[in-house]
Amino acid sequence: MCLVSSLIYEKDEDDVNALLYFSSGLVVGMGFGKVEKDWRPFVYGGLASCTAEFGTFPIDTTKTRLQVQGQHNSLHAELRYRGMTHALAEISKHEGYRALYAGIAPAVLRQATYGTIKFGTYYTLKKFVAQYRQDPKEDVLMNVLCAVTAGMLSSAIANPTDVLKVRMQVHGHHHSLVSCFQDVYYHEGIGGLWRGVGPTAQRAAIIAAVELPVYDFCKHNLIPKVGDTVANHFISSFIASLGSAIASTPTDVIRTRLMNQRRFKKGGITSPTPHTAHLYTGSLDCLVQTVRNEGITALYKGFVPTWVRMGPWNIIFFITYEQLKKIY
């Protein structure tokens, strides 16, 4: 709080007014005042997100498998995979290539909601703040605040699709989207669909706070050198991906483990493997147990596929997004 207060204090009066007006607008339901209503960032964000998801999903599956393995007292205690390429080979060999795309349906559904809301809200909030401040110059603090707000809001709304994606990735292609949803809802209730929503929102806030402002900063500063070109978008995406992967992987490990664990409803429904049903009581307990049982490096399990996936994902996304902007 002190840090935030000092940052706000150091800004000029227009920035403070914009921040206060921005906050009050969120409280009354995203009232953007006089900002021009533009649907394009929402549609372009959703389409670009779905395109990027299709292109990088097998890498995401290996990341999920790596993050859940090695847990104490669980079905995933065995370290089956040595790394990303080994996981890709083993999954393809023993489960078939289809298993690499297990969970693609909820993943695309997630991006259709998460990506649409996240990127549309971010760019709309940026435009709103810029119009109120009457200053077209980029402001890093304002961009971070807009990104955090957009990331947390969109991830919380899309959390059920994320839970289904993780469950299907861990268990392979044995369940369809509908049967996976029915299984979660019947055994765990509606709350099961929001398993891990806390760390999910935290992860989304971290990624958005790093990824979007860094991309905008790099793109803005590269324009005088290489112009608003695909090369600019490629370089900016790559740099933004590295930063967000380093910052978000520990939270992502906790989020994935919480989403994969099952907490059954009271009333007689039991698990066929009760010792795996409930390992962690919450985010902090998951963090403590993971470090205690597996070491601090366990928080960076799946870092390589996270970065390898984030790089192409962001490159595909931002290039698609920028090209869609030029079309209409």
UniProtKB/TrEMBL annotation:
It is found in: Mitochondrion inner membrane. Keywords: Membrane, Mitochondrion, Mitochondrion inner membrane, Repeat, Transmembrane, Transmembrane helix, Transport. Solcar repeats lie at residues 40-128, 138-221, 228-327. The keyword Ribonucleoprotein does not apply. Its main location: mitochondrion. GO terms for cellular component: mitochondrial inner membrane. Pfam families: Mito_carr (PF00153). GO terms for biological process: transmembrane transport. It is a multi-pass membrane protein. The keyword Transport applies. Belongs to the mitochondrial carrier (TC 2.A.29) family. This is Mitochondrial uncoupling protein Bmcp isoform X1.
